[in-house]
Amino acid sequence: MDGGAADGTDFSAEFASERIVAAGADELERAAEAALRPRRLDEFVGQSVVRDQLSLVLQAALARGNAPEHVLLSGPPGLGKTTLAMIIASELGASLRVTSGPAIQHAGDLAAVLSSLEEGEVLFIDEIHRLARPAEELLYMAMEDFRVDVVVGKGAGASAIPLSLPPFTAVGATTRAGLLPAPLRDRFGFTGHLDFYSADELERVLVRSAGLLGVVLDPDAASEIAGRSRGTPRIANRLLRRVRDWAQVRGDGGLDLRAARAALEVYEVDPIGLDRLDRAVLTALCTRFAGGPVGLATLAVTVGEESETVETVAEPYLVREGLLGRTPRGRVATPAAWAHLGLTPPRAEGTLFDG
Ligand SMILES: Nc1ncnc2c1ncn2[C@@H]1O[C@H](COP(=O)(O)OP(=O)(O)OP(=O)(O)O)[C@@H](O)[C@H]1O
Ligand SMILES: [Mg+2]
After folding, report:
1. Is 238 one of the catalytic residues?
2. CA gap 319, 310 in Å, rounded
């Protein structure tokens, strides 16, 4: 090990939100991200199907001179939903109004936002699956008929005054498209689903970001970082910043393969993007439970975490990578998990997945 922590950095970060491979971002990080956000559709890397379809929708609307249909963007955190919403507004030359499901407590809050919209504006509703039901119903009407009923007064004396709205474009973003009620989903004329990025696409994201940060990133370092970024541009950009830190403090400033590997070792991100918790779960599964099946609660206690943390923070990526299986009898390690940990399974594992 190196001398470590001379710079006072605490590497014993908690597993959940602050973990370096978390797909979500906190406020501070969102500020760092803003500088790296592509502004135009042609700067947006990858997602060629969605980009192409969206480009048609936008160009057609521009040619006709009216507001495009409402757009729903779905997909896991950190893949570019907010970025695309901003791009939609800028490609249309329209201003963007931002709100979110959790920010709208009452239908009245949404009515206030809607009734202040100007013609052609883009209304971005983040985490739209978290809108409260009454607000959702108000939104249906606004999206379909460009109308809201503004309720004045209270109780028996209350009355609804219909108010017509200028044409606008709603852009909804959600990580949980399945939670959206069908009537709401149906009111979006275009739905784009974002998928995890290939290593090649992440390399392009990284090279672009390095350029914006004013650093030169060696191609083999880009490929090393991309391979550890779990298909997610947000994680790629975050790892890039950590590699830059390492290069500045402990290296010679160059972002080469040596710097990438050393920095990511400090942050305990392994060659396929697993962090300490991911590896702890897999290691416990293989070495303590002979590869399972073992119940989630037992597995969680063994690694000293809450079941929920293991289930929502570690497992999705392990499952996606084919390292862990969820079976009715519990969690099992796949042959790939044993191989990744450099361990030999105690007996033939093949039959576990047949049931
Ligand atoms: N296609 C892309 N090309 C280049 N950079 C991208 C791309 N997609 C995302 N990014 C970068 O990744 C970061 C996260 O993207 P964004 O905030 O749009 O994700 P999100 O899908 O809205 O995530 P969340 O669900 O957490 O809100 C941004 O800094 C953005 O610059
Ligand atoms: Mg977002």
Report:
1. no
2. 12
